[in-house]
Here is the input.
Amino acid sequence: MISSSLSQEITALHADICSALADPVRILILYALNEKPSNVSALAEELGITQSAASRHLNVLRERGLVISQRDGQSVVNMLADSRVIQALDLLRAVLTSKLKNQAALAETIEPSETE
Amino acid sequence: MISSSLSQEITALHADICSALADPVRILILYALNEKPSNVSALAEELGITQSAASRHLNVLRERGLVISQRDGQSVVNMLADSRVIQALDLLRAVLTSKLKNQAALAETIEPSETE
DNA sequence: TGAATTTATGCGTATATCTGCATACATGGT
DNA sequence: ACCATGTATGCAGATATACGCATAAATTCA
Here is the structure.
């Protein structure tokens, strides 16, 4: 019984990690932290969101183990915990652009050059 | 203005794809479909969920473009739209197991061989 | 046309998440 | 001790999602 519920537990954790990616702001945060570590308020300003929102989103990413934070004086520096997260995001972005291209091509066959 | 809101739109779609992965049942469905295409009720039985739940989850995956469905007689066969989704899931699973291993190792240094 | 099989969906409920605002908490410098 | 700066959080409201049950809709076959 332990092992069957164990795999369920792992799948649940797997889904938790995916949930962490299921928000536009958090995706932007992850890409930003991939560029360079940053603290909450800098991130908030960079992305044009409130400090409150940035703090909560970072907390979600921390809980799921995608971001590591450490105090540096007054501020807390956040950084990516594992760059494979970015690889995964890039793969999913590629899935998206493929789909969009297919749709565009399909639309073209129906109604040639219908741009607005 | 169009282009700035365009990138926002793409990030939103990116997050939509990630949301599709943010559920344990849907993760199981994707891995199952990666093994072989299947119809709703077969999938429901295989995963031990109701037909209703399977149908709705498949609909989510279809809306996000991760699963393609086509009628085959009475039933509707569902299949993965893009295997890169599995690659992404595998990457994220690797992130998870790395983290779990680190935690286990850390626990070991504190309280050696504390298994139950 | 009518019965059987497979899917989809309306409904109600429970739960989760996001957000801004205001405020508490933590740290560093004076 | 006090103030400034940076960060976390309680609260309330809005929105989204998952679920089971029952039932509608689609398709095939007799």
